[in-house]
Amino acid sequence: MENTHWWNRAVVYQIYPKSFQDTNHDGVGDLRGIIDRLDYIKKLGVDVIWLNPIYESPQVDNGYDISNYEAINPTLGNMDDFQELIDGIHERGMKLVMDLVVNHTSDQHNWFKESRKGKDNPYRDYYIWRDGKDGKEPNNWGSYFSGAAWKYDDESGQYYLHLFAPEQPDLNWENPQVRHSVYDMMNWWAAKGVDGFRMDVINLISKPAGLPDAKKSADEKYANVEPLVSNGHRIHEFLQEMNRNVMSKHKMITVGETPGATPEDAEKYAGLDNKELNMVFQFEHMGLDSNPNPALGKWDDRKTSLKDLRANLTKWQEKLYGKAWNSLYWNNHDQPRVVSRFGNDETEDYRVKSAKMLATMTHMMQGTPYIYEGEEIGMTNAYFPKLEDYVDLESINAYHQLVDDQHLLDGATMMKYIAIHSRDNARTPMQWDDSEYAGFSDHQPWEKVNPNYKQINVKKALADKNSIFYYYQKLIELRHTMPVITNGKYALVTGNEDDDQVFAYTRQNDDTTLLVILNYTAETVSRHYDVPSTATLLISNYEDDQHDTIRPYEAKVYQF
Ligand code: GLC
Ligand code: CA
């Protein structure tokens, strides 16, 4: 497969603006803070910056509840700051991807304020309104943030649908006016120089006709809507229409967040000759450590086994090869920190080694890698002990639903699960140095700083040539310079399928082979792989090579 597009060789850096850098002493990150740190991001070597939502928003879900798509949240800055930011990004040869949140708006958006006024309002049909059934909700759908997905509106006497919080009413994509309002808004941002969009839960926008009940297990109070609602019957029609109206008119990079998408779905969304999106974020590898009881969802404390992880990553590498384009990620603002989840943050040595090993695992694969702020210095989960330490509505609502309401878990167990899986783990302030509040702010931050900021911070990472930062920098450089990383064919090393400890795969094109060997455990193991005598060691997280002896979390890549 050819690297026909620049983004096939690109690496993306994700910024959670609220947690990146505060400059005006209010404890909340802002656009000027990002501007101040552009040289740091450039030093890492990435090509694209993706910003989580920076639009006007009441912040019920940290900006994923937008009240005005064409205004900047004043806490973060203003349009002049935005212009300076985008210019600064472009001057440094990078591109800017914005978050596009159009499955829903905030309930404070003008469209919803109008819609709520009554059945005859011209905006009524912008949202999904239904009469109740037998004095209850129109169907059994549950919200991603606990409770029912419907809220009764006294003012206008009907229920409206909200797959997320009640303050995030779902837009009605069946209405062509909704769709064209969205396309206009996207074109408006493109005219400002935005280079692309990361599309929030984009595969949930086409709801099933008739809004039927979803399958529900015994313990679930409301049904998990994802299997029924994701990849809906009109989704490809909508995305092709969006592509014609927006993407085809600009040089853009697009990535769709697509929970519940299989490789077959990914081929439709992001096929190589696609008329929809450039790539997807799929979630299968993020679900391998979920609770087997669907009522408990992601709340569990199991670790993903190497066998499950390898089988899943291999499936995606093989099925998409020559057909579609994937993204490669371990982390984002909704996921726990990779080194705590898949690696080992118990000792400093293991933290550094396992962070590099996991980075090698994905950065040597085919796809576009995404690095989430702080991942490049090996930031860990915060493991906050008390519910009061958490800010995110998902964790707090889940605690009340599963512990207080349904009694499915005791409080201590749920707190253990929250410490592992809460989205707050990703949202603690960026750790820049060892001063108070980690150099993020000189004011008490909106979300607590991870107590380990004195050991783990950017200042330390930049001063240490063996740091995780420089390892990521090298991985990025290799992707830019070695075509085999973007176009080589992936294969598991024969016999590796059942290895519980070591993951070994190759990438191969016409002139180069890479052999990637990764120890997923804290044990020293012995393995023999056929490495030609002409092979050179391309990158490794140890100082020397002990050949068949593979040390804790060792990662090495041979080239021949
Ligand atoms: C996506 C976002 C998440 C948000 C949700 C609702 O999953 O990544 O942060 O809460 O959509 O917009
Ligand atoms: Ca600020």
UniProtKB/TrEMBL annotation:
Question: GO molecular function of the protein, one example?
Answer: alpha-amylase activity
Extract the SMART domains matched here. Aamy (SM00642)
**Official protein name in the record:** Alpha-glucosidase
Q: Which InterPro entries match?
A: GH, GH13_cat_dom, Glyco_hydro_b, O16G_dom_2
Any one Pfam family here would be Alpha-amylase
- Give the family per the record: Belongs to the glycosyl hydrolase 13 family.
User: Sorted alphabetically, which CDD domains does this protein's record hold?
Assistant: AmyAc_SI_OligoGlu_DGase (cd11333)
The record, for SUPFAM superfamilies, names: (Trans)glycosidases (SSF51445), Glycosyl hydrolase domain (SSF51011)
Give the Glycosyl hydrolase family 13 catalytic domain ranges. Answer: 14-427
State the superkingdom: Bacteria
What is any one GO biological process for this UniProt entry?
oligosaccharide catabolic process
Keywords assigned: Glycosidase, Hydrolase
Q: Which residues form the signal peptide?
A: none
